Amino acid sequence: MNVHEYQAKAILKEFGVPVSRGVPIMAASEARKAAEELGGPVWVVKSQIHAGGRGKGKFKEATAGDKGGVRLAKSIDEVEQFSKEMLGATLVTLQTGAAGRTVGRLYIEDGAAIDRELYLSALVDRATSRVSFVVSTEGGMDIETVAHDTPERIHTISVDPATGVMPHHGRAAADALNLKGDLAKGMAKLLTQLYAAFVAKDMDLLEINPLIVTKDGQLKALDAKMSFDGNAMYRHPDVAALRDEAEEDAKEIEASKHDLNYITLDGTIGCMVNGAGLAMATMDIIKLYGEAPANFLDVGGGATKEKVTAAFKIITADENVKGILVNIFGGIMRCDVIAEGVIAAVKDVGLQVPLVVRLEGTNVQLGKDIIARSGLNVIAADDLDDAAQKIVTAVRDARGKA
Fold first, then answer.
1. Hey, which CATH number is domain 114-239, 3.30.470.20, 3.30.365.10, 3.40.50.1440, 3.40.50.300?
2. What CATH number belongs to 250-401?
3. Residues comprising the binding site for ATP?
4. Class of the 21-110 domain?
5. What angle, rounded to 10 degrees, do the helices at 250-257 and 305-316 form?
6. Distance in angstroms (rounded) separating the CA atoms of residues 165 and 168
7. Which residue ranges are tagged as binding site?
8. Cβ contact 268:323 at 8 Å
């Protein structure tokens, strides 16, 4: 689960991390009051969407201007003007894709006197099974670009969960960022605060880009990005309450209600599979034969008929889906349950695109018999390779007739 920048900063502030004062607004009519509350003389008006690269982004609407999704205002009138232009407009960044995201919230923040921009993040390092800090002197830039062009400027600091952050971690980060004296001490304190927040809130990622050194020699988190472990949200109702469903795919929201692991992708072949590994293999073989998956969907090992029906409805709700591949290997999952769910869903929502079903495992023959007796136009497949070829061929044939 992701949150907006202003929400992330509020969490950081709970743990003592220095952040600028700011006021979130949902309507342009709130802009003047927010600016007056902060006092100025310089304000930053920030679009709040769940995507990076906002400052370099462009709005689709001409009325929104061409100054990007993060703007420096030097008067209250400018704060109000920018707010009117940006709210409700569609911001396109490198992370949103061409469709962009509608800006429904803004964050009006105090301006900062910046001396240096640094990069700092915390993440779960799967190679070491530890939380690691990633730091770089190249703040304010896309970290992927830095990693590609100048990897020597990125430093990783691993933290042993048995000890937590120790003084040597702070020294290592300070050395990597060329921080001396009080700034080095400040970095040691900051790492302790960030680690405490990361662990306490079950985060997946915490990114501060940029972390700035101010003109008066202080460290401050000028931006903040957070994502949280969805499986741990039952422990954090305060964080769960921050969820902004307007920033999420409606199909993914619906899938979460049925405990389905679903992610929307850019292809045309909808997939329903049990098991994450098998789902990834299914997507790979679709790509191998020249088409692309429209989604990742793992119905899990103990799916019910109702769960399978819900999954099928979610797939067919995607207008980009031109064919569907159901690939089930029944261990705990029974093939007859899958068959019953697919038939129920097809009868409920109709079948407008080719459907290939490959079943193997527990009650496989019973599952195949249920589908065969259904009278539905379903293409049976014997194995994964056969299934992939058949759905790709069916989609291409349908495309050629269109």
1. 3.30.470.20
2. 3.40.50.261
3. 46, 53-55, 109, 112, 117
4. alpha beta
5. 180
6. 8
7. 46, 53-55, 109, 112, 117, 209, 223, 274, 331-333
8. yes
224 vs 49, 139, 158, 317, 396, CA distance in Å? 12, 13, 21, 34, 45
How many angstroms separate the CA atoms of 267 and 264, rounded? 9
- Which tokens in the block code for residue 152? 């020597």
Per-residue pLDDT tens digits for 184-221: 999 999 999 999 999 999 999 999 999 999 999 999 99
For residue 21, the tally of other CB atoms under 10 A from its CB is: 12
Catalytic residue among 6, 107, 119, 195: 119
Tell me if 21-110 shares its fold with 250-401: no
Q: Among residues 5, 80, 85, 207, which one is catalytic?
A: 207
Check if the beta carbon of residue 91 is closer than 8 Å to that of residue 59: yes
pLDDT score for 26:
96
CB atoms near residue 186 (< 10 Å): 19
The token duo for 277 is 């590994």
Supply the DSSP symbol for 63. G
Residue found under tokens 């990005």: 225
Residue 349 structure tokens: 């929502």
Domain boundaries, the chain: 21-110, 114-239, 250-401
pTM of the entire predicted model: 0.82
207 is known as an active-site residue: yes
